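Extended Data, panel c. Modelled sequence:
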Amino acid sequence: MCFSPGLTQSGQGGFDFPQQARARYPNATLADLYDPLTLPAELRRAHQANDRAVDAAYSYKGDRADAPRVAFLFSLYQRLTSLLPAPGKKRHAHPD
């Protein structure tokens, strides 16, 4: 499940679409479901809707292939997490 500030689980096109589509095939493994030759059309459409929702949520305007989208998202994640304090460092209160 993916969350973004200002979005709900079903906001901007529904991040839960792939999960709902997979639920229709309870006995199939992920390998069965995601085989490029047998990927159910509804699951493919659900992932495409999810991609559009993520693109809109993060203002992504690049290539529609997975690799550039993932690179963009990891770059954004890295920028955001670099603002956090380093792990293990404790701030000491200054005496007044």
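The two ends are 45 Å apart (CA to CA). This feature is highlighted in the accompanying rendering.
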